[in-house]
Amino acid sequence: xxxQDDYPPQVLEESVxxxxxxxxxxxxxxxxHECKEGDPGKFTLVFHTLHSALIFSCTLQSxxxxxxxxESLLALPSCREVHSERGELVQRGLSISVGxxxxxxxxxxxRRPLKDTGRPDxxxxxxxxxxxxxxxxxxxxxxxxxxxxxxxxxxxxxxxSKKVPRDIILCGDNLDAGVEVVCKxxxxxxxxxxxxxxxxxxVSTKELAxxxxxxxxxxxxxxxxxxxxxxxxxxxxxxxSFARNVSSISRGIDNRSTKTSxxx
Length: 264
Known about the structure:
This protein has 5 helices and 15 strands.
């Protein structure tokens, strides 16, 4: 849950409860399972297929816009209604960030039951990757790591593929007929404790494709263009320019001080 304002505690508690209720009501419809809720509104979820996870995440984002949010929440700047140029409702109420990843193979993660609930919790490479991707997602955004192949209504992660499509459109299967999901290629990010640069997509329903987000915090490359070196050069130039300006100001102050002292 993205908390961008000073939410009154009662309003926040009521709003998070509404969000959690919606999430849990949708979870079973998409074959998902709740592992844990670490902090209020922050869930670890697992799905049988990546396709189900993405459709669930995008459906959740769409349904959040139409919840009966408290009026005091909707009065906050980050929770007000926002419409796109096409007139689509793209923001209303709490903004939820989602991070997704997919792997096959027991060596990517292991699970053990939680002491308090008995539900399985996951540890290892995959859970760490998901947490890092979630850290890159902006409020209201769904991010997914991977390189994909498209086969009609299914998507398959192919980590060995050298060709990374920039945009993908997925159509729902019988479980979620009529849902159309757009995956927009963002670029490569460099994540802590993750080997190699990671390509990520921003995922949304077609109706919410007009949502605009800042680039991920750790974005370094878009395709073959390395943003890291150009960004560093730009910042270096700015620092040198700032240093020159400060030096000029300092010399000007010194000169004025010297002239003043002569006439005293």
